[in-house]
Design a protein that fits this description.
By secondary structure, the protein is α+β, with helices and mostly antiparallel strands. It is 48% helix and 11% strand.
């Protein structure tokens, strides 16, 4: 890794950037008094709801809730990672981005050059491997693969070239010899997942053999990994590159780069299961399909999709596995949905997949299926009522119980209100009943949780600092609910130490997202602690989280005050009996005694 960018530089960069200039270079702005307005670039709308405040250097959309500063706009609009956005903003101001190692020391220019050189070498090695597989496909060794693509799948030469498809030959060392002759070390080839090294024998050989090969490209079009399908009965049928410094499968989507290259506006994306599904759909003119890489759609996948489009359609087989995959996708999707984003679920006939179906019935009928796919709200209701008889009170209760966490994960808005109203009619439970689980009632004062026992739920025994930490990781922008008077004593416990660092950062950067937060601290001890808490984030909706954050903050402030009072009380009482207390201290002691007496009566 190239080292962390100093926070002071990022703060200064944002302070010297004009959000109106950054946004205005990409969309049309209209002056409205002191502010600017525009049609929101993050969701479809007919009247402007996107506003920029030049004084606060902040943008906000009243339609979809998108908000942030110049840096976050670059990330969301240009689909850039955190570091890429910082570098782009720095280039626009003509400044260089400094780096630190993870001890806070600035890296030298030479170290930067070495890091860049290593990355460029890795990308060159992957490109050379891609070219090799493409060349093999045009030779005798690749004839079976070429026949598979052309005859069995009906792919054109133009599509083969567009997706850079290739063939890995049957031998064990074809790629290894080719890349080694080109000057790439065996160690680098192993690191990039192109070669496999047997631990017991030390033998090194090609990972992909006797397979058709699908290059996986990142957002810049660089090949970062490969997927392969066998040409015989070998196992496994499908094989992916392992995770490498260039390739993380939870973040990449096969076909996304190719979809973005197509002319015209990209309005929606179809998420399918396999490489061949993406390619077969593209052959029929449907160029807006992407595939996850052997994993379920992750939160990172969906965030990336929603930066580009406002609608996602999930395509599943109609069997039990497809049903389970759809349920997992829905649960990942719900926290990311708002009134400007939409999702649908398409279930295919038994025995069909997108590849076979689109070749059988054509693009027109397949698109018709996509247009008629089940909207998210309808799918959620059908999922909840599956196997239930809603004429029975017990089943109404079961449905309400299952609905609570799903409803709570949705952002406040029209969709959530409509779903609650519909569920009220189906179950007979009120809106409060359907939203009560894990929520803190208004005006409730936070109470410290008791020590755990083996039978208790661990989530009910969190220290106040830990609970506040998890909530702020989930909703970083709610740091504005934490009073400025709250000071965290880092030495109290491990949670307090991490919370102290987080609050210090968020108070300087109050409009960032969880993704930006984790990206900035990546590779540090704090980053590991934040990532751990992100995985354990408490399942509260935004409104409940805001109330909980405020309540915990007041509890911590009051606790510190009480501890200071107790310490002063002990100090005054602890003075030698021969010492005559001054009148002011006697009065102070008497007030403390009264306070303690009143407090004991309250208990």
């Amino acid at each position: 890794m190239s080292g962390r960018i100093p926070q002071a530089f990022i703060d200064d960069l944002i302070a010297r950037s004009d959000v109106a200039d950054v946004v205005g270079a990409r969309i049309t702005l209209k002056k409205t008094g002191k502010n600017y307005s525009a049609l929101c670039p993050f969701h479809n709308e007919k009247s402007p709801s996107f506003s920029i405040n030049p004084d606060k250097q902040f943008y906000y959309c009243f339609g979809c809730g998108a908000s942030g500063n110049a840096l976050t706009f670059l990330m969301e609009y240009d689909n850039l990672e955190f570091v890429e956005a910082v570098e782009a903003l720095a280039r626009s101001q003509g400044v260089q981005v400094p780096r630190e190692d993870y001890r806070g020391n600035k890296k030298s220019s030479q170290e930067h050059q070495e890091q860049k050189k290593q990355t460029d070498l890795s990308l060159s090695c992957m490109e050379a491997a891609q070219n090799y597989y493409q060349q093999v496909m045009q030779q005798d060794a690749g004839k079976l693969g070429l026949d598979y693509f052309r005859s069995k799948r009906g792919l054109s030469n133009a599509l083969l070239e567009s997706y850079a498809l290739g063939v890995a030959p049957e031998g064990w060392e074809g790629l290894k010899k080719h890349l080694t002759q080109a000057g790439f070390s065996e160690a680098l080839q192993i690191e990039l997942g192109l070669l496999v090294k047997k631990e017991d024998t030390g033998r090194v050989y090609d990972r992909f053999r006797n397979r058709v090969v699908f290059p996986i490209r990142n957002s810049k079009g660089h090949t970062v990994g490969f997927g392969g399908r066998v040409l015989d009965d070998s196992k496994p049928k499908y094989l992916n590159s392992p995770e490498t410094p260039l390739f993380q499968k939870s973040q990449e989507l096969y076909g996304l780069y190719e979809a973005r290259k197509q002319p015209g506006r990209l309005d929606r994306l179809l998420v399918v299961e396999g490489y061949m599904d993406v390619v077969a759909l593209a052959q029929q003119g449907i160029h807006w399909a992407v595939a996850t890489l052997g994993t379920a759609a992750s939160e990172d996948h969906l965030k990336r999709i929603f930066r580009l489009v406002n609608e996602v359609v999930f395509c599943f087989d109609g069997d039990a596995a497809g049903t389970q995959a759809a349920a997992r996708a829905m649960q990942t999707l719900l926290p990311l949905i708002n009134d400007g984003r939409h999702a649908r679920f398409l279930f295919l006939p038994a025995g069909e997949d997108p590849d076979t179906l689109v070749r059988k019935e054509g693009a027109g009928l397949f698109e018709q299926r996509v247009n008629q796919a089940m909207p998210l709200a309808e799918y959620l209701i059908s999922y909840l009522r599956q196997g239930l008889d809603l004429n029975l009170l017990d089943d109404q209760t079961r449905m309400a119980h299952a609905a609570r966490p799903l409803i709570q994960s949705l952002a406040d808005g029209l969709l959530k209100r409509r779903l609650i109203t519909h569920l009220e009619g189906l179950t007979g439970f009120s809106s409060d009943d359907l939203q009560s689980q894990n929520q803190v009632p208004r005006q409730q004062v936070y109470q410290p949780l008791k020590q755990s026992t083996s039978k208790e739920n661990p989530s009910r025994t969190l220290p106040a600092e830990e609970k506040l930490l998890r909530l702020l990781i989930r909703y970083p922008d709610l740091v504005n609910q934490v009073p400025a008077s709250l000071e965290i004593e880092a030495q109290r416990n491990e949670s307090a130490q991490v919370l102290h660092s987080l609050l210090e950062y968020l108070r300087k950067s109050p409009h960032i997202t969880t993704q930006v937060l984790l990206a900035y601290w990546s590779g540090t001890n704090e980053g590991e602690a934040f990532l751990q808490r992100a995985r354990l984030a408490l399942e509260l909706n935004r409104e409940a989280a805001a109330e909980e954050i405020l309540a915990i903050s007041h509890y911590l402030i009051n606790r510190k005050t009480e501890e200071q009072v107790e310490a002063r009380y002990s100090d005054l009482l602890g003075k030698p009996e021969t010492t005559q207390l001054p009148a002011a201290e006697m009065q102070e002691l008497w007030k403390l005694v009264q306070q303690k007496h009143l407090k004991s009566e309250d208990k």
